[in-house]
Write a structure and sequence with these properties.
- The chain is an alpha/beta fold.
- The chain has a single domain, classed as Spore Coat Polysaccharide Biosynthesis Protein SpsA, Chain A.
- Helix content is about 40%, strand content about 20%.
- The chain contains four helices and three strands, in the order E-H-E-H-E-H-H.
- Strands 1-2-3 form a three-stranded parallel β-sheet, covered by helices on one side.
- Strand 2, helix 2 and strand 3 form a beta-alpha-beta unit.
- The chain is globular.
- The termini are close together.
């Protein structure tokens, strides 16, 4: 079985981009992942944009404390210690990570 990868997504007022971010994860060939999204006190429509995604991610809300605090909150919720901090979800990045994970089995 492929190792579980925890994807931590700190989010603050990102309603405009959050769907594209999540869909880029869904489009990857590597499938054994969990998404932990930490909403860092968004005041826009970030939460409502997530409604159709809730079955595929774990959502947490916190008062606004900044990106680092949101990321750390997500790390504490992760089911695995095999974590990759992905700032850009690109096919090239995912292919490289998938290759590394498959070699480490």
């Amino acid at each position: 079985m492929e190792p579980l990868v925890s994807i931590i997504v700190p989010a603050w007022n990102c309603a405009r981009w959050i769907t594209a971010t999540l869909e880029s994860v869904y489009a990857q060939t590597y499938r054994n992942w969990e998404i932990i999204l930490v909403d860092d006190g968004s005041t826009d429509d970030t939460r409502s944009m997530l409604d159709r995604h809730m079955v595929r991610l774990r959502y947490y809300y916190q008062e606004n404390r900044g990106t680092a605090a949101a990321r750390n909150a997500g790390l504490r919720k992760a089911l695995t210690w095999r974590l990759w901090r992905l700032l850009l979800f690109s096919r090239k990045t995912w292919k490289r990570i998938s290759s590394r994970l498959r070699r480490k089995r």
